[in-house]
Amino acid sequence: MSAEATNPGAPIRRRGRPRIDLRRLGRVALLGPVSRDRLPDAIGHVAEAHRAHHPDADLSVLHRAYVLAESSHRGQMRKSGEPYITHPLAVTLILAQLGAETTTLTASLLHDTVEDTEVTLDQVREQFGEEVCYLVDGVTKLEKVDYGAAAEPETFRKMLVATGDDVRVMSIKLADRLHNMRTLGVMRPEKQARIAHVTRDVLIPLAERLGVQALKTELEDLVFAILHPEEYAHTRAVISAATATADPLTAIADNVASVLREAGITAEVAVRPRHFVSVHRVRIKRGELRGSDFGRLLVLVGEDADCYAVLGELHTCFTPVISEFKDFIAAPKFNLYQSLHTAVVGPDGEVAEVLIRTHRMHKVAEAGVIALGNPYAADGTAPSAEPVDGTAPGAEPVDGERADPTRPGWLSRLLQWQQSAPDPDTFWTTLRADLAQDREITVFRTDGGTLGLPAGASCVDAAYAQYGDAAHSCIGARVNGRLATLSTVLGDGDTVQPLLAEDAASGPSPDWLDHARTPAARIAITGWLDAHPQDTATAAGGPADATGPGPQPDRAARPARSGSAGRTVNAVVERPDTTVRLAGCCTPVPPDEVTGFTVRGGAVTVHRLECPVVTRMEAVGRVPVVVSWGDAAECRVTLVAESFGRPRLLADLTEAIAGADAAVISATVEPPSEQRVRHTYTLRLPDAAGLPALMRAMRDVPGVYDVSRAQHPAAAL
Q1: Which helix (H) or strand (E) holds 284?
Q2: Terminal CA-CA length for the chain
C-alpha cells in the first residue's frame, strides 16, 4: 500500500511489516494437501492479519473457502506467470489488513470461482450460506458473449445494485481492482490505459465515497503512473530528493508531542507522508514545494473531547493558520470521514498541516465502510437470518428497503436514477458524470426534512429530488424564503421550497437540462421531452424562461412574423401570419428535405424528414405541413464531431470552424470514454452551401474520424 494506506487498526509505527512474497505463497499453495488441523501456509498471513482485528474470529470457514478456491483454480495461471490462487489470496489479504470481517474474507477468497471455474453459485450457497453467495454473485462479471460491448457497464450496474443491498460487494471489488492495478505491468499499454481510465473515472470516486482512503490513495498513485508517466516520474524524483534532506516535520512533531505531554493529554504524534498524487496536487497549487509539504502531522487520541483539547493546545502554543481550520467531527463528510484539520507555524517558520482524530476515527478514515465490519448485524457478527423479500441476508426491510447504515444519500440517488437509464451507454456516461461530482451539500425542506444533493445542484434538482415526476410542473422556487428561478444554484444549508403549477399537465423546458446536475433530474426531463415532442418543438426556437414550465410560449425567443407567407429563418409555409421555427433537435438547413408540424400556440416547427420526431409526430396522428426554403442564405446547424483524445484537439477544431466563416453559438465536450471524445457544436453559417465544406474541414483535423449532423441533442445526457 501507499504511504497513506497504513493499517488503520494498529498503532502507528515507524517501521512497516515485512512485505509478503505472493510468488512464494503461490508455490506453497500448489504443494498439495495439508493436515486438517491447521490452516495452509499460503493463507497463514491472511489469518494473522484477520486475527489482529478480530481475535475471536472462527478461521475454519476461511480454511474451507481457501481449499475450494485453490482446488478450483489449480492449473490456472495469471498473465504474470503466477499461480492464479495468488490473486484471491492477495485480495483477501488487503481486506484483512483493513479489518474486514470473516464473511467478507470468505467471499473474497471465492470471488473469481464462479466467473473463472466450474464452481456454481448453488455450490457456494450450499457450502457457505446465502450471504457469501450474495457477495460472490455481486462481484461476478457478466459474460461478453451475452452482453457484447455492454458487458462492462452492465457489470458495474449489477455491482452497484448489489452494493445497495450490501456495501461489502464494492469493498471486494475495490480490493480486487487494487491488486489487478498492482500487477498491470504485464498488460499491453493500450489495455493498461483502458483499465486505468475506468479506475480513475469510476472506482476511485467510489472508494472516496465509501471512505476507503487506504485503497483510494494507492489506486490514485497507480493510475497516475500509467496515465501521466512523465508527471509521475518528476514527482517521484522530487520526493526522492526531499527524503535525502532533513524533514522539518520531524522537529515540529517532537515539539507537538512535548506540548501535549506537558498538558497531560495522552496522544500519539507521527509524521504522515503524502502519497504521490497528493504531492503532485500540492505542487500544482503552490508552484514551489516547501520542506513541510511532503507530509502532515497525525495526532491520535482516545476520546472526541481530546481532539478539541489538542486543538486548543496547538493554537495556544503555536501560531495557527486560521484559514486552514476545518471541523469534520462536528460536521462529518458524507463518506463517514471525521477529523479536525488545522495548520500551525513551527519555530523555524515552516507551516505544518495537522490532522487530529481518535483511534476509531482513524480506522474509519482509512478503511471507511470496511471498518464497520458487518453493518447488517447488531452485534457485529455475521447474521444467520434468511433473506426477506429477496434482500441480502441480515437486512431487515423497512418500507421495502433495507435499514442500511451504509446507504448514504448519493448511493440511494444512484440506485434510483439507474432504473430510468436502461440504455448501457446512457448509464455508463451518466455514472461517470455523477461520480465526478465529488462534494455533497445538504439543503432543508420546509417540512423539516433534508435533501442530499451534489455541489452545484440547482432548484431543478431539488424539485425532482423531492417530488419525482411531479416536478415536471414546477414553475419556480423559494430559497431561504425568497422567490428564486429554477436555475438558482443551491448552497449547503439553504432552505428550498419548489413551487408547482396547478396545471399538472404542464412540463419542463429543454433548457432545464442546462441547470440540472443530478442524473435523476436529467433523465426525468429527457424522458418527458421525448414523450412530448410537440411540446419540445414549441421551445425549440430559442432558450426558454427557466422560471416557468417548458410548454409556455417562449415570449423572449419568439421570432417575428414576416408577411403573409409566414417566413422565419429562410423557411416558408403557405399560411398567413404563421410563426415558423427550425427545430433544435435536427437543425435543418437548405437544401435538406423538410416537413413541419403545428404546435401549441399555432406556430409551425420545421424538421428534417429523417428526424426521429417526425416519426413520433406521425405515429400520434399529427398532420404534416408543407414547408419550402426561401431565398435567405444564412443558416444554423448542430454538428457532432467524434474523435480520439489528444492535446490541442479543441483548439484545432475551433480553428477549422473559424476558417469556414462559421460562428460558434454553443459547444459541449463529453467526458472521454475509451480514449474517444465527442464534441457537439451549434454553429451559424453565412451560407448553407458552405456546410459540406465545413464538415470536410472538421474531418480533416487530425484525430477526428467522423462529423455528422446532430440527431436530437436535447435528449443526450
Answers
A1: helix 276-286
A2: 37
State the number of CA atoms in the 13 A half-sphere of 289 facing the CB.
Answer: 22
Distance CA 508, CA 524 (A): 9
| Tens digit of each residue's pLDDT (9 = 90 or more) over 32-66 | 344 444 445 668 888 989 999 999 888 999 999 99
Query: What angle separates helix 213-227 from helix 189-198, to the nearest 10 degrees?
Result: 140
Using H for helix, E for strand and C for coil, what is the string for 526-568? HHHHHHCHHHHHHCCCCCCCCCCCCCCCCCCCCCCCCCCCCEE
Q: Which of 115, 324, 396, 438 is catalytic?
A: 115
Work out whether strand 268-273 and strand 295-301 pair parallel, antiparallel, or are unpaired.
antiparallel
pTM over 0.70: no
d(CA 570, CA 222): 56
Residue 299's nearest CA partner among 9, 3, 12 is 12
> Which of these ranges, 624-638, 647-661, 696-710, has the smallest mean pLDDT?
624-638
235 half-sphere exposure, CB direction, 13 A CA radius:
22
Give the number of C-alpha atoms closer than 13 A to the C-alpha of residue 658, restricted to the C-beta side. 6
Compute the distance between CA of residue 240 and CA of residue 232 in angstroms, rounded to an integer.
Answer: 12
Contacts of 565 (CB under 8 A, 6+ apart): 572, 573, 574, 576
C-alpha torsion angle, residues 648, 650, 654, 657 (rounded to 10): 110
* Mean pLDDT, the chain, whole residue set: 78
Q: Is the pLDDT of residue 9 over 60?
A: no
Backbone angles phi, psi at 343, to 5 degrees: -145, 140
Q: Which residues on neighbouring strands pair with residue 685, listed in sequence order?
A: 635
Integer-rounded Cα Rg, in Å, for the chain is: 30
Torsion of CA 201, 204, 205, 209, to 10 degrees: 160
Q: Where are the strands (E) in 302-424, listed by range?
A: 319-320, 326-327, 340-345, 351-358, 397-398, 401-402
| Confidence band for 503, pLDDT divided at 50, 70 and 90 | low
Taking only the tens place, the pLDDT of each residue in 526-540 is 888 877 775 554 444
**What is the C-alpha separation between 195 and 219, in angstroms, rounded?**
12
Q: How far apart are CA 414 and CA 373, in angstroms?
A: 24
Indicate which residue of 116, 350, 642, 670 is catalytic. Answer: 116
Specify whether 115 is catalytic.
yes
C-alpha span between 521 and 471 (Å, rounded)? 9
The Cα–Cα gap between 546 and 428 comes to 28
642 tagged catalytic? no
- For 137-159, the DSSP string reads HHHPPPPHHHHGGGHHHHHHHHH
| Predicted confidence (pLDDT) per residue in 290-317, tens digit | 888 899 999 999 999 999 999 999 999 9
